[in-house]
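R.M. (postdoc): so does anyone remember the format we settled on? I'll just put the structure tokens first.
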């Protein structure tokens, strides 16, 4: 019996000279069902993406570039898998409006591609309604340009949604005087603290506290290889999920 081979997925990587982009180039090149047709850095024309016939665009650039890149992809019917941070509510709703005009095109905005991180955030959010207090500590390499991390923002949003649905009051906090920043920042009512330290890659702890007990969800990415299975999963699934999906959990069966 002859085996059926489907055509490889034609993939363009944007931000190809960056820490994540360089890793994604290697991962796509090594994937048996994909072909890297374009690898662009800052200053390269997006026309290279269409000229190469890319069907999928992986965006691993910088917050100020990503929106224009993704809009270009959608306008050309190219599915986009996006790891870049900076997708606030305004950008997401503008993208949804654009996708409504291109109903066959899919976009995945994944604040974190590491499956362990996605699981830790989902589990922490589910657990958070059973605890009085919740705070997030995210720890990253010092070359990161944004704070708090996209992952921490997403985790805080998931936690806030769970706690609000369960009508859990805000975490108690008696602070009446503080040095600026001592209590971190607030995302949807959840305190987030950002550490930047040489030697780190990407790490996060969600601390849940109740009377006499603490539950901690911690995830560590020690290497950017940890993100690559999620990038490839995104490319393999984005076309069958037209419209906007936020979070890799949208493609996983978490069953929670
Ligand atoms: N979702 C996830 O799992 C992960 C997401 N990230 C996020 O991915 C993004 C990239 O991270 P990282 O690789 O560490 O950052 P880097 O700064 O190492 O890489 C970004 C690269 O994008 C390039 N670039 C900027 N604008 C464009 C453009 N318009 N077209 C093509 N390339 C462009 C930059 O060029 P130049 O150097 O000239 O500016 C740089 O080489 C960040 O937002 C980060 O938070 C990171 C890790 C995991
Ligand atoms: O810049 C990084 O490195 C990372 N960025 C993403 C984020 O902001 O959450 C994902 C991961 O934490 C690594």
């Amino acid at each position: 019996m002859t085996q059926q081979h489907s055509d490889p997925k034609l993939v363009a990587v944007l931000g190809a000279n960056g820490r994540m982009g360089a890793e994604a180039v290697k991962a796509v090149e090594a994937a048996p069902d994909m072909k890297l047709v374009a690898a662009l850095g800052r200053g390269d024309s997006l026309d290279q993406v269409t000229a190469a016939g890319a069907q999928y665009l992986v965006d691993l650039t910088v917050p100020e570039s990503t929106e224009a890149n993704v809009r270009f992809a959608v306008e050309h019917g190219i599915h986009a898998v996006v790891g870049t941070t900076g997708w606030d509510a305004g950008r997401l709703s503008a993208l949804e409006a654009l996708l409504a005009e291109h109903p066959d095109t899919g976009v995945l905005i994944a604040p974190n591609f590491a499956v362990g991180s996605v699981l830790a955030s989902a589990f922490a959010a589910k657990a958070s309604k059973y605890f009085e207090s919740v705070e997030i500590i995210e720890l990253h390499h010092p070359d990161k340009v944004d704070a708090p991390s996209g992952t921490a923002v997403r985790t805080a949003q998931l936690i806030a949604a769970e706690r609000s649905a369960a009508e859990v009051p805000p975490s108690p906090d008696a602070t009446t005087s503080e040095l600026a920043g001592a209590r971190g920042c607030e995302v949807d009512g959840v305190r987030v603290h950002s550490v930047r330290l040489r030697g780190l890659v990407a790490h996060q702890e969600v601390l849940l506290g109740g009377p006499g007990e603490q539950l901690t969800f911690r995830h560590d990415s020690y290497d950017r290889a940890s993100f690559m299975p999620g990038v490839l999963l995104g490319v393999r699934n984005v076309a069958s999920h037209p419209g906007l999906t936020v979070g890799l959990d949208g493609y996983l069966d978490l069953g929670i």
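R.M.: ...and that's the designed sequence above, right after the tokens. Also worth knowing: The radius of gyration is 19 Å. The chain has a mean pLDDT of 97.
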